[in-house]
Amino acid sequence: MARFPVHTLDSAPAASKSTLREVEARFGMIPNLAAAMATSPVLVQSFIGIFDKVHGGSFSEPQIQTVLLTDAVTNGCAWAVALHSALGLQAGLDPLDVDAMRAGRSPANKQLGALSTLARTLIEKRGRLDDQEIERFLAEGFSKELLLEVITIVAASTITNYTGSVTNPPLEAGLQAHAWNS
User: Fold this and answer.
1) Buried b vs exposed e over 147-174: b needs ≥16 C-beta within 10 Å?
2) pLDDT band for position 182 (50/70/90)?
3) 51 vs 46, 160, 177, CA distance in Å?
4) Lower Cβ count inside 10 Å, N or C end of the chain?
5) Going from the N-terminus, what domains does the chain have, and what CATH number goes with each?
6) What tens digit of pLDDT does each residue of 74-93 get?
7) Cβ atoms within 10 Å of 121's Cβ, excluding its own
């Protein structure tokens, strides 16, 4: 597979440098996936914008990580599965729920299970939910507004998942314990 460059602040295109500085300020480092995204200033700038919307929305961090981990598994992006496994555990997800999602199943927690199932179904059915799928999600205490907000999280993860699959960045040492193969 062709390797894409994993940029540093020095090697990144000029139009990507300020966004990489923002990423570094938020994470304390530049994750390899963001460094690979920097090849395209449009991509890396779009990613940081949608990242802000997702993490500034209505869902808690464990809920967001549930959707992001489910999406990473559903899309088969090993880098993102490792990252969101680590972040999900850090956010307080039950390790058994993280293991379930890594295996393609929904978490045992009912609300997280509803989020995971919705996210997987949105990807697998390309957004074509039927009335029963919508009603199952709403029956777990979520609103129509939140259902639509899940689409934003799925869109954000699609950017990272597709970029990870295309650019194939190396997994950071700190994520090795969460390595995953589809």
Assistant:
1) bebbeebbebbebbbebbbebbbebeee
2) confident
3) 8, 10, 25
4) N
5) 61-157+171-178 (1.20.1290.10)
6) 999 999 999 999 999 999 99
7) 20
Tell the residue number behind the tokens 């059915």, with chain if given: 125
- Spatial distance between the Cα atoms of 111 and 115, rounded to a whole number of angstroms: 6
Distance between CA atoms of 139 and 143, rounded to whole angstroms?
Answer: 9
Please report where in the chains the tokens 């890396």 appear, as a residue.
Answer: 44
Q: What's the length of the chain?
A: 182
Do residues 107 and 100 lie in contact, with contact meaning Cβ atoms separated by under 8 Å? yes
Q: Given this model, what pLDDT does residue 27 score?
A: 85
pLDDT score, position 2: 55
